[in-house]
Amino acid sequence: MNDVAASTSDVDQGVEPAGRGASVWTLWGRGPWRTLTAVLLCAVQLVPLYVTLAVALKPQTDLSSTWALPRHPALGNFARALEEGGILSALLNTAIITAGSTALVVAIGALAAYPLARSRSRFNEAVTLFVLSILMIPGLSLLVPLYVLMVRMHAISTYWGIIPIHVTFQLPLSIFMFTNFIRAIPRELEEAALLEGCGVFGIFLRIVLPLLKPVTVSVVLLTAAQVWNDFQYSVYFLPRPTMRVLTVAIASYFGISGSDLHVAAAGALLAILPMTVLYLLLQKYFVRGMVESAFK
Amino acid sequence: MERTYRSANVFYIPALILFGVFVVYPFLDGVRIAFTNWNGYSRSYSYVGLRNLARLFSDRNVRLAFGNSLIYGFGSTILQQILGLSAAVLLDKKFPGRTVARTILYLPVLVPAVTMGYMWVQLLRLDGGVNDLVQVLGGHRVLWLSDRALAVGAVVAVNTLQYMGISMVIYLAGMQAIPSVYYEAAQLDGAGPWEQFRGITIPLLYPAFATSITLNLIGGLKLFDLVWALTSGGPGYTTHSLATLIYSSYFESQLAGFASANGIMLFATILAITAMLQAGLRRTEVELS
To answer: Residue of A17, A109, A156, B159 with fewest CB within 10 Å of its CB?
Structure first.
């Protein structure tokens, strides 16, 4: 499976070995059919975004079909979403929690992966297996005892409460990715550093860490997207209105009966804007990271 | 050098502490709570033996949620493979607009599931966009989210569309790894496009199938956010997944012991199904090679 993972960096660079799969491709027919099919698929995927935009640009009094764009688009709903929906404070909370969690996942994950990749004793193999098995636990199956623990630690609705939860459940994947990456690095440089009298932490910090840049990019994007988009932990552990993150703020605005759905739609668009822009800018790295993490 | 590496073992202590405090301890505590009649806030409670476990098997809502989780899991997984593989075949070869199409088809993966759910609520309302289409085609407006069968179908459909991009990207990566000489040789032997697809692409995509199916299945079985946004488990309790039912039992019905037992069942279900899936996938792999 390694060759699959290795080749994935080409996925979005349009590297095409000549003639490869030329006739499998014709399964979709020739000429305009493929473009038409692609356009149709994309249209379906854009429908929810388009309709949300159409709704967001209309005042509540506009009763036209949700498909119709308004004749006079109004930006008032966006302004109201920022004021009433608490989007700005939610944005700040989301940014702080995402940055904190991601930094810790990278630091603790890379550190933990180093001995697991280099010293393959039976005990370390058991630790690796334990870490991988945590990947299988759905966080919600621990909801009751985790909630009890957080209440007892007075950690509900605090940054220092939610961040360790995110870090814990994101760590296994990052440890797994760092371990695989470090195993592929030759040991000569580390041996040379040892002969020069470098300590083990110094070797890790000065020799290994700088080599981890490519996999770190993948870990950062994967973790940040997961934490930024999280709803299930945030809705339990950050209930106080001033501590809401974006997903919770949007859900509670939609959830209040009688609230203006047009304002809610505007809020939803504002909330997904930062991650969407980041994805459009760094698409290649997002896709590569997803594929690297998927092939185990 | 080995001794130096061994001294690095202290580096994983921070990670192990986190796993101990936030996974192992809660897990054991969860098993303990599952044997109590605790309501989630009072100081006193008593141990009730296997009563919560027995209730898991007799409770109608649990049975419904269990069935729904299986439908969400397997239904979305099957549809995602069909759509994802079709899109990957479509977008494997260069043509104008291919990069844009890939970007758009993967974009929904980066939208929070709960937000995507609320966007679809706008479309599925009585006066929403889907019903506008139904009416244009000559049908009557339908309350999509107020009927169990339609609502379960809507959850599967929205989940499928949102995450088909994951399957697509995995299949694209797998197809890039197939050496072109295989296709060239098959063409020389006179194999048509369909034979090449069945004889080369499908068997060589095996690791991609295994990966994509496992990811989609686990994602569907533990579905929470989307159900919350689309139906909140309603009408009645008929569209709950196991994950949303745990929430509802704990925070709405104050049955912490029961909810904890339910959580253990969710974990055991996912563990059992993935174990069976892995065994099945390994057997097929042996047969193929």
So the answer is: A17
Are A249 and A209 in the same domain?
A: yes
Report how far residue A110's alpha carbon sits from residue A106's, in angstroms, rounded to the nearest whole number.
6
Q: Which domain holds residue A38?
A: 31-74
ipTM, interface predicted TM-score of the complex? 0.91
Min Cα distance B237 → chain A (Å) is: 18
Could you tell me which chain B residue has the CA closest to the CA of A45? B105
Final residue in a domain of this structure, among A21, A43, A74: A74
Is there a single domain that holds both residue A186 and residue A258? yes
CA–CA dist B178, B192 (Å, integer): 17
Residue with tokens 């060589």: B204
- CATH homologous superfamily for the domain B63-288: MetI-like (1.10.3720.10)
Across the interface, do B211 and A296 touch by the CB < 8 Å criterion? yes
Chain B residues within 8 A of A11 when measuring between CB atoms: 169, 172-173, 176
Q: Is A49 on the interface with B (CB under 8 A)?
A: yes
Mind listing the pLDDT tens digit for each residue in B94-147? 777 888 999 999 999 999 999 999 999 989 988 888 998 999 899 899 999 999
The pTM score is 0.90
- A255 and A280 assigned to the same domain: yes
